[in-house]
Each structure stands twice: as structure tokens, then as C-alpha cells.
Amino acid sequence: VRAATLPVLLALLPAAAAGGVWFTTEDGSASQGAETPVSPAEQVPMSWLLDRGDRSPMAPVAAPQERDEAGWPGGPPPREFYFTRGIYSDHGWRRRQAWATDFPKAEEQFLTVLTRLTGVDAHPGANPVRLDDPGLRRFPILYMVEVGYMALSPPERQGLRDYLLAGGTLVVDDFWGSAEWANFHREIREVLPEYPVVPLPMDHPLFSTYYQVDSILQVPAFRGAATAWLPTHERDGYVAEARGIFDDTGRLMVVINWNTDLGDAWEWMEQPAYPLRLSTFAYQMGVNFIIHSMSR
Amino acid sequence: VFDSVFTALFRHPLLAFQQGEFSFALSRSLVIPLLVAAVLAAAAVFTYRSARGTLGRGDRVVLGGVRLAVVAVLVFCLLRPVLVLSSVVPQQNFVAVLVDDSRSMLLDDGTGGTRGGTVQELLRPGSPFRTAMEERYALRFFRFHSGTERLDDPGELTFSGTRTRLGQALNRVREELAGVPLAGVVVLTDGGDDAALELAEALPPLQAGGIPVYPVGVGPETLTRDIQVSRVEVPRRILRGSALEVEVVLTHTGFQGRSVEVVVEDGGRIMATRSVQLPGEGQPATVRIPFTAEEPGPRLLRVRVPVQEGEVVERNNLREALMVVEDRRDRILYYEGEPRHEVAFMRRAMAEDRNLQVVLLQRTHEDRFLRLDVEDASELAAGFPRTREDLFRYQGLILGSVEASSFTPDQLRMIADFVGERGGGLLALGGQRALGQGGYQGTAVAEVLPVVVDGSSARDGFWGQFTVAPTRAGATHPVTRLAEDEESSLQRWGELPPLSTHNPVTRLKPGATALLTGRGEAFPEDQVVLAFQRFGRGKALAFPVHDLWMWRMHADIPLEDRTHQTLWRQLLRWLVEGVPRPVELAFPPEDPEPGEAMELRARVVDRGYGEVNNAAVTALVTAPDGSTTPVPLQWTLARDGEYAAPFTPPEPGLYEVVVEASRGEEVLGEQEGWLRAAVSDREYFDAAMRAPLLRRLARETGGRFHTPASIQELPEEIRITGGGITQVEELSLWDMPILLFLLLALVAGEWGYRRARGLA
User: Fold this and answer.
1) How confident is the model at residue A35 (pLDDT cuts 50, 70, 90)?
2) Do B340 and A80 touch (CB under 8 A)?
């Protein structure tokens, strides 16, 4: 059933964006499954995704993806864009490693949509990279989730700091409530002590670079979204917010999506029960992040 | 010595033989003696032939030959050989004497005195030269510098002129003495003429009038010890904040191996200094001094070398150059066919540049465009410009990864015309849809580009990595210079991480220059990384690189490193440097003296960069004292779109010239320019006596070149070679001493031969 409704969604998304009409009904009509076009050569080896059961706060994180000398994932000529997910050390409080939440289905589905909706020449597979890997610099846009559990090692901190100051852009997602905020804020203060976190105003070009986004919606985890009587928030994160960190020149270095989980919408949008309103918002935000940081 | 021996033997100077025509003044009364001589010769031959005795055949030939030679010499004399000459009639002709009255005449003449002093001594009433001249000719004295005046007494010479305009002086003298018989023009000068064209134009009328010029060169041909700032090259106009290079050429004599400082000053402030070691004798030293033009407005750069001990001429150690630093904002259209990291990184690199605006038109999806930094909502609203007016409003154009088929043929032609006719700068970046990969081969755009666009690798998709190195031209070029001096720049290039490309480009067009090349495994030949060529009025660059942004992002690049930013800034500033505006100004000559007539010239085009001949063009000239005068410019008729008006700067200083052009109600454009009128120092440059120029002047007019040492021959020479009223003169040659010597030698030879053979 995976991706059963994908073609329908793909057709609806641009219309929704152009007309400003929010579609709230789901069309579950089944069609032939649209497989994400990942060629065998570009498939990510999955073996290292297995839970290692190591729970120490400074647990060694997963091995980086194999890359050639130049820093590109092996195979045919490199693509312009790689959906790059930051691999980081966490506190080890969760069953899975925090960085890998929704991995890799979220980005795989997102990339399919991205290449349909935009002219971005994107690598169709996932591309997780450790923060202390010098090869991270090949990928100027970085996505990180569950940053409320983040516990960066000094090399990771340095790697992320240099990455951001050299011109990289970080998008963080899927962390909720004041406790997780406090953890993230403490970590990011260590990385970029001199740059404050500020709210992103709705007139920031990020919200209009490709799609016009007029308000920040709270995208809940799948169960909360698909089930009407469940709350959409987690813990005390009641209101979704977009915040940012700018560098000296006014460049948006870090985009912070707090009290919302765009990645879950990317991951589950093919489910008939998933509200189109939320998945449309999540995809539009995702596309805007990428087009914005590829042009400004 | 040769001349006096020659004259002793031949009775007349060599010059007479060169100028005169040889002939025999044979009269009828001489026929009989000739017949007698013939009979004698025949008899001599006969007697030798018939003589028998001890004489061998060889002896007979030798002795017969000698006898015949004696007879031949006698016959030659009897035929009355003469030289026919036209010579100047004494006391009926004028000779003009032109004296250089410029400042360079006050320099050392190599013998301890000044050049002017030598001249005054030669022309002093009662001097041998002047007396010899006055005996033969009526003399008229003139002095010349930037103008030419009659001179009554050589003592009036002041040697204060700031220019030497020999051509103009010759014209003036020829015109003034047109009504009198002019035997020739004597010019006393050091040959420091600075209007070579004028001189060339003055020669044909002299040749036609048969007026020879006799230059007398004063001063040494080489200065013993001197350093000179021979040339200073700076761009006339430059955008504020641009890195530029002042190119200075030093020449010297006698300071080989000496290390000297070259100082660049702007308004009394030292902008840059560079130490240079002077090369071997006669070799120029070229110094490139980088600095950044920060302050807007007209800047007077002074380039000087501190005066060294023992220099003959001190004033040629300084040169000034006017440069206008413009604080305007040039606009570059960047058309990119896909979302790309390069766009973001380039825009960030250019963000701080207040004088360059990169307007982005980026195709984010099939028919969706992102426009950034446009001036208003309508700019580029319909995508890439469709009219020349819309495209030509930009000074530069960058084509990113965008395929040729996304343009109409008209648009491709327009892009080519943007370079060739509008004079804009075109930069073609690499990318999956750029150059050959974008199907540009055979299009109008490919014609303009400096590289051969090859699509043979397009189908399979190419990708390769290379390390970049500057070429010889790139090592010092303002685009690719990464550090103050060449050495550290080259070192920096060697440290940069590799880049990659989708576009294999290995062939340059004839006339194109490569600034950067790359080497990598995927490339059998060197990849062209950055190349340019001039095309029509503009220039085109190819930069087939996919990920220049890695020079910002790469882990090996320190965060504080500015290579990426510097390279983009220098590249784009150079792209639009010198791009013409709708109204362009020129001031020939560029460095007038106060009171010297010159021209204000403007080239006017419309928004499509077609020349306009019916515009109203006015120059508002603001003098150094603040007064403003309007000067209307007229179409020159000679060239489309060219307007001119005569102008004479009355006083020294900086003149602001603002030219406005309009056609009916439509304002075509306005341009500001700066003009500097100053008393020129050029008399002190190349101040050695220029003998080659003076020799040429003599040769082309039929005169002769002299120095003060040989000037005593001049009066007689003019008599033989001069123009004016001449008479035909026959110089008899039968009584030349050489003939007598020849006869005696022959007779003595015969006697000696006989003695040696035992016949006498």
C-alpha cells in the first residue's frame, strides 16, 4: 500500500499551492504503486541502520555512507542536490538512534515529490552524513531531526559550526516542548555561541521563495494527524513555530521547526488517512527550504 | 680626414660627385687630336705585335696593356670630363634657421654646458658658422616649442617651452617663407618631438617644394646615468572598489642592478610601493603594482621613483595619470536554468559589492522563474528578455546551466549582439545544460565564446575533476590574481582543492586567452577552466566549472579565507569593465596644455545601441574656477553617432565635462568625464638627442644630418644640395690631381716592369 496515493497527491500539490485552496479530504482510491525510482546502483546500503543496542550517551554513531575521494557518494556523475541527513550523537534515551527517525522513507518520498515539483536535479536516495565528516561540506543543505535528544561530541560541534559558517544551511525538525527546546538550545549555543535564535517573521523570503506559505501549521506525528480525537501536540509543545539563526551578513544559517514534525508528513503522506492539508504544508515548506538555500 | 683627402685628390667634395651629373664637354676641335690618339694607339698595338726578339707573349700583353691605359687616360682628359651641378646662387636665397626653444634644451649637452648654450654659441653674431652662412644666404631665424615665432636675435631664446612640435614649426616656416626663394631649413634641436604624426604630415609639402631640411642634433645620444618612468598604464575609468594594477615601465642607463622603489601616490597619500631591481643596460623593467580604487571621483595618480644620485635628468622620475573612479552600480543579468548551489554562493560572494548588482533569473521548474534583485515588478516578468532594449540595459550577462533550446534563435542572436554590438561582457558558466552539453554548438552564442563548443560527449554525460593552475597570462591578470604579489598568488593557487565539471572544454579559439587550466584523470588534454576573448565591442568569457562554491565550502579552506569571494568579485568586475554606456566621451588629445586647442567628442547610441545621428548633444564644462559653460556638440558626419566640438581649456586644472544627449523628448543618456589641462613634463622624457628621427627627417627631404661638431660643412653643403634659385655649374674634371698620379703610376710601372724583365 505504500505510496498508493502518491500520484494523486503529486497532481494536487501544485494546484493547492497555486490556488491557495487547502484540500482537507483524502482520496484513497488505489492505483498501481508508484515506486520511488531508486536505481540499484544508487541504493544506500541499509545494513548499518540496524539498532546497535549501544545506549551510552556518547554512543558511536553509524558509519558514514561510502563516498569516493572527492566526497561524493559513488556511482554515476554526482547530482546537484543530495538530501543530506545529519548523523549525530544523542543521549541514548530512545529505542532507536534519534537522528534516524523516519529514515529513510521520509526523504525518499520527499525527493520523489521534489523532483516532480521543481527542476532540482536531486539524488533519489538518502544521504546520511556524520557532522564530523569533512565530506559533509559537499552538501550545503543539512536536515536534522529529534534534536531535542542531541548530545554533540566536540568534533561534531566543531564540524557543524564550521559547516554553517562556511555556507551550509541546517534545517531542524521534529522536536517538541520546552524540555527538548532547552536541550537543542543548549547544544546550538555551544555550536554558535555568538548568534542568537530569533523568530522567523512570516514575510521572510523563506516562506515565499517557491510556494507562498501564509501560516505555520502544526504537523503532528502520524497517529495524531490521522486520528481526529488524538491531540496534535506532543508534551507541552502546543504551538508550532519557525525560528532561525542568521549570520553576520543576514544569511539564514539555521531554520528551526519547533513543535512540529514535517518529516512525518513526508513519510506518511501516502496513507489514505493522512490529511492533505498537513502534507501539502510539509512538502511546500520542504521545497521552500531547498530552493531558498540554493538561491540566497 | 677621408673628406679632405678625397677633395685633395678629386678637386671637389664627395657630395658634388653624389649630387652632380657626369658628362663630357667634347667640342669639335678635339676630334682631330682624338683621331691622332687612335692612330697612335693602333701603332702601339701594331709595333708590340710585330716586335720580335726576347719578348714572351705574356710580356707583350702586359706592356701593351699599360701603354693602352696611358693612352686611355690621355683620351679621357682630352674629352673634357665635367660634373654638371645645380647649385644655389649665393646671396639670392634664404635659409630658415629653426631653434628648439623647449625646456629640454636646458639639459646637459654631454660636454658640460647646456644644449641651449651650445646653440646660442653657434648662432652668435660673428661666430664662424653664422658668418659662413651669412656670406652665402639671407638668414631668417625662428624659434619653436608648442608654437612657432620669428626670432630676431638668438639671445632672445628662453628655453621654456613645454612641448616640441617640430612638424607644426616646419609647416609654419614653409608657409611664411612661401614667397621667397628658400634654399633650405636648418633645425637646431634635440629631437624631442612629441607629435610624431604631425611631423609625418609636414614632410610631403617639403618634399614637393624641394626644400631640404638640415637637422643639427644637439645633446648626447644616450644619457650617461638616468632612470625614467617611461610608461604608466591605468584604466581610464574603473568601478569603485575594484582591484586594479598600475603597470609601470622603467628604463634606465647606468643603474644596472640597482634596487629602487616605485611609489604610487594619490592626492599626496602613498597608495602602494614596490621595490624593483633594475635589469641590464637598455632593458626596460616592468612593474605591476596592485591596489584598490576606494575613493570615487577623478584621481590623479603620481607614480615616481626617488631621484638617485648622479641622475642627469631628475624630472623624468615622475609621471601622472588621471583615473576616474566611478561610484555607479553596474548590473549583471545571471540566467540560471536550474536550482544550483553555485547561485547561492555566488550571490553571497557578491552581496557586499555595492557597485555590482547581480540580477538573478533562475528557472526553478519548467516554466517557473525566481527573480531576485530586480528593480521593479515588471523587470524580467516574462522570463529572459525578448527585445534588444531589455537585454542591453545590463552591462554583463551570465549564462548558467541553461540549454540553448530554451532560447529562440532571435534571443541567441541577441546574446551574440549583446557582446559584439552593445559591447557587454558575457560569462558562460559550466553545468549539465551549459556549452556543448546544452547544445550550443553551431549557435550564434558559440561563435562569440572563446572556446570551441563541442557536444560530442553530451549524450553520455561527462563528469571529471581537475586541479586548477593559472596560465602565464593568468598569473598576473586582475581576475585571477589572488594575492598582492605574483609569487604568493601562485602559491595560493597551488593550495586550492580540485573542482569538477560536466563540460570537457579543451580547445581555445584563435585569439582567445586562457587564464586558468585544469588537469585531472578524466582529461586527456588540459581542461580550459577560464578563458576570454574580445569579440566586437565587448568580451566573452568561458568558465566551464560546475562547483566553484567548493572553494568556499571545502573542509580544506579556512573559514576566514576569501579566495572564493575575491575571485567572483574580480571576475565580475572585469566582466563589466569598459562596457560602453549610451553616451561615451573622449577628449583628443587626452592631456592638453592650457590654451591648447582640443576636441570634446562623444559617441551616442539609443537603447538598442544603434548609432544616433540626429541627437541634440551638449557638453556642460565646469572649469577649475567653478564656472560652467555649455558647449554644443555637432555630428561629425565622418562616423555614425559621433559628435564633436572644439574646446580650449583656458587655465590649468581639472575640468568636469557632463555630456547630455537627447532626441526630441527622449533622453538618450548622460555621461560625466574629466579632463586635465596641465603644463606638460614630457620634454624631460626620452631626453637624449634622438638622432634616428633627425636622420630620417634629413633623408626624406634631401638634406643632411649634422651635429655641432660637423656644422662647418653645412654652408657649402646647402650650396650644392639646396633648393631656391639655383644655377647650373660645370666642374671640370680633367685637371683632377688623381689623373696625374694615375699617369705617372702607369709610366713608372712600365719602366719598372721592363727593368725587372731585363728589357731596359
Assistant:
1) very low
2) yes
Nearest CA in chain A to B402: A119
Tell me if chain A has a CB within 8 Å of the CB of B553: yes
Q: What is the pLDDT of residue B240?
A: 87
Q: What is the C-alpha to C-alpha distance for residues A270 and B57, in angstroms, rounded to an integer?
A: 131
**E strand segments, B639-709:** 642-647, 653-663, 666-677
CA dist., res. B359 & res. B382, Å (int)? 14
pLDDT of A236 reads 83
3-state helix, strand, coil in chain A (%, to 5): 35, 15, 50
For residue B715, what are the contacts with CB-CB under 8 A and spacing of at least 6?
Answer: B129, B132, B133, B135, B136, B137
What is the pLDDT, as a whole number, of residue A3? 44
Q: How many CB atoms lie within 10 A of CB B691?
A: 16
SS3 B534: strand
Band of the pLDDT at A43, cuts 50, 70, 90?
very low
- Average pLDDT in the A147-156 region? 93
Task: Please enumerate, as own/partner, the contacts of B371-376 that have beta carbons within 8 Å and a separation of 24 or more.
Answer: B372/A295, B372/A296, B372/B347
Where would I find the beta strands (DSSP E) of B597-652?
598-604, 616-622, 628-635, 642-647
pLDDT at A15 over 60: no
> Can you tell me the ipTM of this complex?
0.82
Report the 3 state secondary structure along B567-584.
Answer: HHHHHHHHHHCCCCCCEE
pLDDT value of residue B536: 93
For B555, the closest of A134, A251, A296 (CB atoms) is A134
Q: Do B498 and A70 touch (CB under 8 A)?
A: yes
Q: Which residues of A touch B (CB under 8 A)?
A: 70, 76-78, 80-81, 117-121, 134-138, 140, 162, 165-168, 209-210, 249, 251, 290-291, 293-296
- The least confident of A17-26, A180-189, A231-240, B230-239 is A17-26
Asked whether the beta carbons of residue B366 and residue A168 sit closer than 8 angstroms, the reply is: no
How many CB atoms lie under 10 A from the CB of residue A209? 22
| Per-residue pLDDT, B559 | 93
Mean pLDDT for the stretch of residues A4-15 = 51
**pLDDT the model gives residue A37:** 40
How far apart are alpha carbons A260 and B387 in whole angstroms? 48
The pLDDT of residue A42 is above 50: no
Q: Given this model, what pLDDT does residue B481 score?
A: 87
List of residues 6+ apart from B10 with CB closer than 8 A? B17, B733, B736, B737, B738
Cross-chain CB nearest to B364 (options A77, A118, A167): A118
Residue B143: its H or E element: strand B138-144
Q: Hey, which residues 681-720 in chain B have their CB within 8 Å of chain A? A: none
Which residues in chain B are contacts of A167 at CB distance < 8 A?
Answer: 344-345, 348, 549, 552-553
Report H helices in A20-140: 105-117
Residue (of B374, B307, B288) closest to B334 by Cα position: B374
Q: What is the mean pLDDT of chain A?
A: 79
Q: How far apart are CA B483 and CA B491, in angstroms?
A: 9
Contact B465 A78 (CB under 8 A): no
Ranges in chain B, pLDDT < 50: none
Nearest CA-CA partner of A126 in A106, A145, A98, A101: A106
Non-local (6+) Cβ contacts of B669 within 8 A are: B581, B582, B583, B604, B660, B661
Q: How far is A40 from chain B (nearest CA, A)?
A: 19
Cβ partners under 8 Å of residue B148, min gap 6: B98, B142, B165, B168, B169, B172, B173
**The pLDDT of residue A94:** 64
The one-letter amino acid code at B114 reads T
Contact across the interface for B341 and A296, Cβ inside 8 Å: no
DSSP B347-411: HHHHTT-TTEEEEEEEEEETTEEEEES-SSTTTTTTSS--SHHHHHTSSEEEE-S--GGGS-HHH
